């Protein structure tokens, strides 16, 4: 399993991955069906591009990361998640009536521009954003599970169980 966390700048991250020969390595890793988990910037680099710069992303998702159209940036704090179907996580096993996650970002994926792989959303300043997105072997989230208290711990357990079983 490859876990790519991140707080950083899209262009700088993609330049460093390219310089170190890791961009192609990660693309091949994912294309071969190996498990990938991305957090924040680790999610952004999965897309084709970002308004945060001019570099080309990994292109796993055929959409663009956009700057949040808000007067209040960065988006920092707790937001409620709204679950959609997921092959990676059985959301119904979360024991609370709601799930809250911690976000820190100025760029994200607006639900309207995302592909059909969205498995959780959140609302910020009346904007419906992608909170988590998945494919067969990729699971990526905009929020930070390591800062998301009990829900974050539970989610890590679910992700690790899923990959251990496959």
TrEMBL record:
Keywords attached to this entry: Amino-acid biosynthesis, Chloroplast, Glutamine amidotransferase, Histidine biosynthesis, Hydrolase, Lyase, Plastid, Transferase
Keyword presence, Manganese: no
Glutamine amidotransferase domain segment(s): 2-149
Biological processes annotated in GO: L-histidine biosynthetic process
Annotated pathway: Amino-acid biosynthesis; L-histidine biosynthesis; L-histidine from 5-phospho-alpha-D-ribose 1-diphosphate: step 5/9
Catalyzed chemical reaction(s): 5-[(5-phospho-1-deoxy-D-ribulos-1-ylimino)methylamino]-1-(5-phospho-beta-D-ribosyl)imidazole-4-carboxamide + L-glutamine = D-erythro-1-(imidazol-4-yl)glycerol 3-phosphate + 5-amino-1-(5-phospho-beta-D-ribosyl)imidazole-4-carboxamide + L-glutamate + H(+); L-glutamine + H2O = L-glutamate + NH4(+)
PANTHER family reported in the protein's UniProt record: IMIDAZOLE GLYCEROL PHOSPHATE SYNTHASE SUBUNIT HISH
Name of the protein this chain belongs to: Amidotransferase hisH
């Amino acid at each position: 399993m490859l876990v790519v966390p991140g707080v950083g700048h899209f262009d700088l991250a993609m330049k460093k991955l390219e310089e170190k020969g890791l961009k192609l390595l990660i693309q091949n890793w994912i294309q071969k069906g190996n498990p990938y988990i991305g957090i924040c910037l680790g999610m952004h680099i999965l897309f084709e591009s970002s308004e945060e710069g001019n570099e080309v992303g990994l292109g796993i998702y055929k959409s663009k990361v956009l700057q949040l159209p808000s007067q209040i940036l960065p988006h920092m704090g707790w937001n409620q998640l709204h679950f959609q179907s997921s092959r990676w996580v059985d959301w119904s096993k979360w024991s609370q009536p709601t799930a809250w996650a911690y976000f820190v970002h100025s760029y994200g994926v607006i639900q309207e521009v995302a592909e059909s792989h969205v498995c959780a959303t959140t609302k910020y300043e009346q904007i419906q954003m992608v909170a988590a997105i998945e494919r067969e072997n990729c699971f990526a989230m905009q929020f930070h599970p390591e800062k998301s208290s009990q829900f974050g711990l539970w989610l890590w357990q679910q992700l690790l169980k899923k990959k251990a079983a496959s």
